[in-house]
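#structure-requests
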Amino acid sequence: MDSLFMYQQVDSIINDAIQKEAFPGVQILVARKHKIIFHKAYGFHTYDSIQKVQLNDLYDIASVTKILGPLPAIMKLYDEGKIDLDVPFSNYWKPWKGRSDKKNLTLREILAHQAGLNPYIVFLSELLKKDKSLKSRFVKTSSKKNYTNQAYDNIFVKDRFKNKMYRQITRSKVSDVKKYRYSGLSFLLYPKLISDITNENYADYLQENFYKSLGANTLGFTPKTKNFTNTIVPTEIDSLFRKDLTNSWVHDENAALMGGFSGNAGLFGGALDLAKMMQMYSNYGYYDYKQYISKSTLKEFAKIQFPENGNRRGLGFDKPLIGNNKLPINKAYPAPQVSAESFGHSGFTGTFVWADPKHDLVFIFLSNRVYPNRSHRNIYNLNIRPKVQQVFYQAMKE
């Protein structure tokens, strides 16, 4: 790798991005052939330039949770024959049996975002009065009996509110047209599904079977409740729900209403620990003398499932645009040079992880682009993440 080229190019892209307020700061880690070849922090936690981004800072990884939370558990259960991709999902999630539009949907269709499920439901609206204050029947300011799901320092959501969320998902409309339509709804169901199948707490199951063994010690839910010495990078100044700068609690409102333990969002972690998970994926389930998920399973989940419909997605994993290698950088996703075998996921807060087994390259990009609010979209407008990722392919000498 051409080290000088890498640093000059990335420095230039990122400094320009910070100046244009794509994000106040960022951390980038790249590993090639199992070695870290680039790990650098830029900028600050916020635009007041007080707290510099450090290499061990923790981030709310938003939708990257989908592939590092429920997905490894689902792959392991698939390996063990406890889940089938091609039988109706209603075999596992019984409330869907009585819904004509959902009873025959398979897990393969759902994980590939091919099932026609509703993209998102704003469950927060159920908690808000007309004056935007919180309904006391659903929310308390301190932990009480039946109010133990903590969404923020002084917000405790009724435990049974989860059931209301499950019912609304069950009743939500499904599109008649089976084509690519990104939906996070099923990921709200997976923690309970995983717990039901394994008879273990979802978060504990992930810790015991993946994070602990990988040495990914910062990866987990509700970091505020842990004694980390690492600083946690804030996300959005929330004027609606938390009335505060969201820090150390999950940014995503739906995950917050589940007490921070969800499948759609909720995971926090440092770049090094995310890289360990992605390196394990890049090795097709193998890491440090241990096979976590079978090679055949990871290959199955990491391949495009419905290319005939123009759907680029794998099972849970995002994939390059179809024909990505022929696109210019301003239209590509991610970098045009990534292999067709590569896969990863992005997160709403400004995060992105990608594994490329063919080139043995892992790319981790952590930012808080939603600071001070989610209207900051220059991370997309300037196509920052693919541009930075491209640098490392251009720097390859062989």
